[in-house]
Amino acid sequence: MSLDTTPALTPVDEARRQVEICNACRYCEGYCAVFPSAFSQRAFSDGDITQLANLCHNCRGCYYACQYTEPHEFALNLPAALAEVRVESWERYAWPKGFARLFQESGVALAGALVVGIALLFFALTALTPEAGEGFYAYLSHGAMVAIFTPAFLLPLVAVGIGLHRYWRDVDGRPITFAHLKSAFQDAARLKNLSGGAANGCNFEDGDRYSQARRHAHHAVMYGFLLCFASTSSGTVLHYGFGMEAPYSLFSLPKLLGVPGGILLTIGATYLVWLKTKADPDLGAASVWGGEMAFVLLLGATGATGLALYAATGTSWVAPLLAIHLGTVLAFFVTTPYSKMVHGFYRLAALIRDAQRPSGAV
What we know:
This is Citrate/tricarballylate utilization protein. The chain crosses the membrane at residues 107-128, 140-164, 220-242, 254-274, 286-311, 317-338. By secondary structure, the chain is mainly α. It has 2 domains: 11-90, no CATH class; 95-355, Up-down Bundle (Fumarate Reductase Cytochrome B subunit), CATH 1.20.950. 64% of the residues lie in helices and 0% in strands. The chain contains 14 helices and no strands. The longest helix has 30 residues, at 213-242.
């Protein structure tokens, strides 16, 4: 009896095998940006496959349209193949590299980071209680918040920047022009690649049925997050630029941005959690399902705890809710380079790189 000793393909090699078959078939030419980009080439380097993987939004429409999925001998599952490469690329580019696999595979690690963040902030609340202050600052001084969150915000951005530099080098990125940025940001703002080839939506949560649900949930999360970030930024400007310190009234700019942002973020993340439970795990990177779910839950908790904290203003609940909210935010920031949050940075970079492809190359 003979044994098959053929070595298993690496994720990149398996994705390359499948992309080459797709390149010969071209049935999915009108689908997302992955296919025009792939069909503009005849040979695919490892960097090319990494670029295609980060262009993919895992909408899964191509899988349900494909005639070469199992039981066909080609056994195509392009969404899963690209998802494996995508996750592998995030781990490879991550800095420090040792944290990447831990955060991608283990939702427990994310939960642990949240618990540690809350515990540290509870300690800060007892050790750094200010002598005077209003609102949140009656429990944790402005200086203490700045001391805790400035490095927690900036250091992860440095780590992401190092990863993006490595990515750009591997995908042979060119000098970036305003036109490239405009094209990429327009696609990102509309979540164009989640609209499906005929703008009917994708097939993420319900097999071969088209749906815009995932796109709408992503829009809620994305714009909710941006509104919350804008709220914090406006509060910083008011504090340092105009000497106007928190707490702010309901009709102030920080609240007018932050409250709708928190609502959108919470609803969108909750919807994404529900959709993920409906989706087929075999069409994604199944090994990191728990880590991805933990990230979405952490994202939603950031919005929900912020809203709860605002609702508790003037009550005895402010102190514990402040610690929980700040702990959640701290855990979110610290895990950004290693959780699925980093996908936003890489997909934007992939869109910019795709915008550099000659318009006639299809």
